[in-house]
Amino acid sequence: MGTQAPSHKDYARNNSFEEKLAKQKAIDDWLPITSSRNAKWWYSAFHNVTAMVGAGVLSLPYAMSELGWGPGVVVLVLSWIITLYTLWQMVEMHEMVPGKRFDRYHELGQYAFGEKLGLYIVVPQQVVVEVGVCIVYMVTGGKSLKKFHDTVCSTCKQIKLTYFIMIFASVHFVLSHLPNFNSISGVSLAAAVMSLSYSTIAWGASISKGVQDDVQYGYKAKTAAGTVFNFFSALGDVAFAYAGHNVVLEIQATIPSTPEKPSKVPMWRGVIVAYIVVALCYFPVALIGYWVFGNSVQDNILISLEKPAWLIAMANMFVVVHVIGSYQIYAMPVFDMIETVLVKKLNFKPSRTLRFFVRNFYVALTMFIAITFPFFGGLLGFFGGFAFAPTTYFLPCIMWLAVYKPRRFGLSWWTNWICIVFGVFLMVLSPIGGLRQIILQAKHYQFYS
């Protein structure tokens, strides 16, 4: 019996399948996350430093003053260990299915929880974190530029914060058109160096100032309730200091991978270097800042330092350069999401024009919100609590339990559940503190201030 020759229908079906694959590949080669996969391990190091070390490091001494020595040190160290562990889980899960890479956080969520549920769980939280951080960095960049201007030229005419936010945004109207993660590696490297620089200025200048004469380490609040709420709020501040997990898989997606040399090896090397830098930024600033100023420390340690003026001006400029890089790192996955929806769902043609309009619109939107709500950082303490803690502290653990199903009451099982309990604890308590801060400060809030 002879074999039957393939029919015309089979050829047509194969052709249409190949066309679909080719079209899919062309789109993936255009999208910002998957278009370039030739990153070196050190790219992952400085991308992670830029993503994790926010200008929030300067408020860590203030958080310490609300936590106190014992709880403060415990929360700082525990957060460092737990977030390093959950980051390791994400790096491991990136290629747990042979031949497939989970290039985006929500793709991993869909694999762990199912197509629909994974999207509903991960995407809203990721969007809140990434868009929220971009808006906060718009405000931070504008405020740091204003502080630089006021320090260098104290006799000059006062300029509104609104204009400084616009100046800061103007940089992003240019940088946002860099196509993918690898193309912003130069910006990211500069940002990582700056974060280490201004952190060093903060604790170095504190040491040279010496412990203040009337320093006190007790809680500032007059009432027990005030102390408890401040404690909750400070927990939130520390939790948000470690919020780089939202872009980890997207960073790993840029590293080349083969079965012999999987991407997790260079990625993990980069993460270790990044976490050492994070420790060098966070611990000295938090502990030395609190040791020198006690509970009278301002919520930005550079304000407490005041002098020498040239050094404080320089530190503020370093903050500006750093948040320029951080904004780009957090904006890239958002660009990827928007462009994916437009090209894959709404069938827009992948083009430079589409990218031009999408990215300019996003920068303009974040700028407008930052100008309208210059107190957005206070709001993020509340809203962020619902999104930062899960995506960083316990969502990776839940995915790990769902996918690997470790033995009940074994070491892996216990470790994950301890992280989940700690993360839920943070998620519930920090918004309570954040909400109280909003209520207390609302009378000082000014739109378009």
TrEMBL record:
GO cellular component, one term: plasma membrane
Major localization listed first in the record, in broad terms: membrane
Membrane topology classification: Multi-pass membrane protein
Transmembrane segments: 41-60, 67-88, 117-140, 161-178, 184-205, 271-293, 313-335, 356-376, 382-404, 416-439
Localization (cell): Cell membrane
Superkingdom per UniProt: Eukaryota
InterPro entries: AA_transpt_TM
GO molecular function: amino acid transmembrane transporter activity
Annotated keywords: Amino-acid transport, Cell membrane, Membrane, Transmembrane, Transmembrane helix, Transport
Record's signal peptide: none
Every Amino acid transporter transmembrane domain range: 38-433
Family that this chain belongs to: Belongs to the amino acid/polyamine transporter 2 family. Amino acid/auxin permease (AAAP) (TC 2.A.18.2) subfamily.
Name this protein carries in UniProt: Lysine histidine transporter 1
